[in-house]
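Dig into these lines:

——
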Amino acid sequence: MKKVGFLGECMIELSGQAFGKMNQSYGGDTLNSAIYLNRLQPNLNPYYLTSVGSDSLSEKLVRLWEEEGINTSSVLVDAQHSTGLYQISVDQCGERTFSYWRQNSAASNLMKHPDFRTVAETIDQLDILYLSGISIAILPEEDKVALVSTLQEAKQKGVTLVFDSNYRARLWETPEQAQHWYKQVLPLCSYALITFDDEMLLWCDEELDDAVSRITALGVDKFVLKLGSEGCVFYEHGNKTLIPTKPIDNVVDTTSAGDSFNAGFLCGIANGLPYTECCQIGNQLAGIVIQYPGAIIPKSQTDKLIRD
């Protein structure tokens, strides 16, 4: 069975009405993908590579990940920094607003942790390592350099790197800063999972061909352009295949659509399936997830896609 790891940040989530009752949960793009991957293929037990605070809430957070089948042996505890926090406030009309407290979080200091060497050793032993634009964005500039070096070493040791663009403007000082680091990471990756809406925002792309030309120029031979309700296009060595998705009439929450698609795609890759089937699994899972509220939907709803 393949060893798969996810590098990034998961934060504590508070949701409800401001100065009213708040519910506690958690959320993070890479963690969402890790959970859905393990649901698709139970006992895969993907590694999560991050750092959390040393408080009791962070400890409980890690236990919840373990209940979802996540291998937390490479989750570092940082006594000097706290786990990131975000709040979803819902007004009387149902509109949601987000507030974040993640600056200088434990996860953003992962590369500086005195035990990061053990995380790097885990990375070198993986078959597949997945990370996102957020995984890079939260790091200080000098740690971005260190991360790229870690990825280069992992690639040299045969680790398959998979990158999800997931551009969040608020995490970058300028679009040019994000562009610079994406250009450093993408050439190292065997697969890129790109959301075209993000490309339009970050690069001002107007047509799919604009994104395709840029990504292929960076040396990425296999990548997916995700098109939301239209499905996705898979590109391999200049050839493209459109993989449409089934229309969903009851769309409730698209929060984790991309994360769940990525989990399905990774499940296919880990099992050596044809790329069209990898994308189909991703489309199927995303189509289920968007019919329920929240990033992580009830397990009973994803069990129908379990693979042997």
